[in-house]
C-alpha cells in the first residue's frame, strides 16, 4: 500500500483502476483462516466417510507386513514385493482423501479472490518491510490478536462441553472390550473435531468479512488520487463539466428560438 501514500487524507473509496492495480500486485482480500478451516473440515468429513475402510486396509497392511517379515526371517523372500503389495491399498484408499482436501483448498482460495497468479507478493520490497515495522501496533494486529484469543477460548469451551456430555458414556465404556473402546474413542474424537471445526469456521467467516473491509480501507484514496484516476478513465472532470454546461446552454437557446 505504500506506493499510494501521500500527505492527503484518504476519504474517497477506491476506484476500479486502483482495485485492478492492487489485484495485479497480489493485494487482495483473503482470509487464510477461512481456507485452513474449510480444508480441515473437508479432511474431517472425508475421514469420517473413509475411516472404516481405511482402518480395514491398515489392519490388512499390518498383517501382510508381519507375514513378510516372518518370511524374510526364514530366508524365503528378501524382496520389497510384500511391502509394495501391503502399502499399495493404503495409498489407493488415501488418494480420494488427499485429493478431496486439495480440491477444497483450491476452491476456498478461488472463491475468495478468483483465479489469480502473480509473484509480486513474494518479491523483496524494502519499503514494505519498513512499513511493516511502523505498523506493528495497528488495527489489523489488534484484530488478529483478538481473533486468536477468541479461537482459543472457543475451542476450550467446545472441548469442555463435549467431554462433559460424553463423560457418562466414557465411564460406562470402562468395561468394554478393546475394539468397542476404540470405536467409542473414535466416535468422541470425530464429534469433537466436527464441533471445533464448526466454531472455527464461524470465526473464520468473521475474519473474512473483516479482511474485505480492511482491504478497501487500505485502498482508499485522497481527492487528488481520485481525480487522477477519474481523468485516466473518463477524462478531465473540469472539461466534462464545461461540455455539460455548453450542452445545457445550447439546449436552452434552441428552446428559446422555438418559443419565438
* Proportion in helices: over 70%
Number of strands: 0
Count of helical regions: 8
Q: How many angstroms separate the termini?
A: 60 Å
- Please state the overall shape, judged from the principal axes of the Cα atoms: elongated
Arithmetic mean of pLDDT: 76
Query: SSE order, as H and E?
Result: HHHHHHHH
Can you tell me the residue ranges where pLDDT is under 50 for at least 5 consecutive residues?
A: 1-7, 72-78
The helix-and-strand class reads: mainly alpha
Radius of gyration: 31 Å
The biggest sheet amounts to: none
What amount of the residues lies in strands?
under 5%
Task: Write out key terms for the chains shown.
mainly alpha, disordered N terminus, single chain, elongated, 260 residues, 8 helices
In short:
With 260 residues, the chain is mainly α. 78% of the residues lie in helices and 0% in strands.
Q: How would you characterize this protein structure?
A:
The protein is mainly α. It has eight helices and no strands. Helix 2 (32-73) runs antiparallel to helix 3 (81-113). The longest helix is centred in the N-terminal third of the chain and has 42 residues, at 32-73. Mean pLDDT is 76; it is low at 1-7 and 72-78.
Element layout with pairings:
Elements: H1 16-24, H2 32-73, H3 81-113, H4 126-134, H5 139-172, H6 178-218, H7 223-234, H8 237-259
Helix pairs in contact: 2-3, 2-6, 5-6
